[in-house]
Amino acid sequence: MSVMASAPLLELGWDPGWASAFLPYDAAGWVPARVVVANRDAWLVATADGDRDAVVSGRLRHEAAGPGDLPAVGDWVAVSGTGPGDTTVIQAVLPRRAAFTRNVGLGEATLAGEQVMAANVDVAFVVAGLDGDFNLRRLERYLAVAWAGGATPVLLLNKADVADDLASLRVAAEAVAPGVEVRTMSALTGDGVDALAADHLGPGRTAVVIGSSGVGKSTLVNALVGMERQRTGAVREDDSRGRHTTTHRELVRLPGGGILIDTPGIRSLAVTNAADGLDDAFSDIAELAAACRFSDCRHETEPGCAVKAALQDGRLARERLASQRKLEREAMRVTLANDPLARAVERRKWRAIHVSVNQHMRSKYGSDR
Ligand code: GDP
Ligand code: ZN
């Protein structure tokens, strides 16, 4: 059992919850590891005794219903074969606490479904640039993505060194980020970077960096990781069969003890699958809506609508409501495009509505005549 409480594991984010989830695998003689790189058929995992190339067991691959069931970066897994010269085999994936996912279209992959971009993330740094390109609507989108990924968002207002009106931009950002910690910083000058790491990247804490292009994500990642490490991220690995594979670490242990997951695509993950995060990202609207007279109020023409009242007296910005609507529609479109079951449910719902509308019209206007 000593391996299950070892310092290297704790540095990878291991905790008593993972240890208890691992017990059955421990009994099987397997050891815990965290996925550092996930490719189609090659993995790199970090064990208590260092990084190893790994493959997935035939059984795990066979039982996977989609790509989401295969090991993803950030996953905790149970592996066999960690002796010298052994082939390391991933036998099982521990149940994820949460994940940042992207839907892969039916035509796009052999196995359609969700692709996991980063698993078991504690905190999501949502970066916005305080320069000319400051965009609240985009911020809302990334906050929704963060919540949907099961991570606590921290809103980073970057480029504070060139901000014209930092105070009012901050107020505007806080208005679209209810319940979210908002920090100003400069990734370029380094101002606020150490404090960010100290507050949010303690030993074993796992983070991702997301946001629009040009806001300073790479600069921040470099500042957190250290330039040199980032540049030399591609290292040559010797796998057990003597092949050379070039591997770039996508789960990076930071000098201060935290962990950064930086997989291709994660930084700019858009609204896809943000649906689950919309309620959190727009908790102010959800709160208002709770006071509407009708529980299914659409905040359009219904009487006793608390949302419309808030629009009228300026407590809620029209753009914010419109933005929520738009994200909801997009998320719905994505869901329908990827999920036949949801599509069928939606069709049934519309059929039911048509039937009841027709009945209503008939009884009222006798349109059967
Ligand atoms: P990314 O697309 O989000 O990864 O953005 P980058 O990190 O590539 O940064 C885009 C541009 O903004 C680059 O020219 C950076 O040097 C610049 N930049 C990043 N952070 C800051 C900052 O804090 N202040 C200023 N003035 N410029 C920054
Ligand atoms: Zn309403």
Structure commentary:
The chain is α/β, with parallel strands linked by helices and 369 residues long. The chain has 4 domains: 7-117, OB fold (Dihydrolipoamide Acetyltransferase, E2P) (Beta Barrel), CATH 2.40.50; 121-262, 3-Layer(aba) Sandwich (Rossmann fold); 283-338, Ribonucleotide Reductase Protein R1, domain 1 (Orthogonal Bundle), CATH 1.10.40; 340-369. The protein has 13 helices and 15 strands. The protein has helices spanning 7-11, 16-27, 58-63, 136-148, 166-176, 193-200, 217-225, 227-231, 275-281, 283-289, 306-312, 318-338, 340-365; strands spanning 31-38, 43-47, 50-56, 76-80, 88-93, 99-104, 113-119, 123-129, 152-158, 181-184, 206-210, 234-238, 244-248, 251-253, 259-261. The strands form 4 sheets. A 6-stranded mixed beta sheet has the order 10-9-8-11-15-14, with helices on both faces. Strands 1-2-3-5-4 form a 5-stranded mixed β-barrel. A two-stranded antiparallel ribbon has the order 6-7. Strand 14 (251-253) and strand 15 form a beta hairpin. The radius of gyration is 24 Å and the shape is globular.
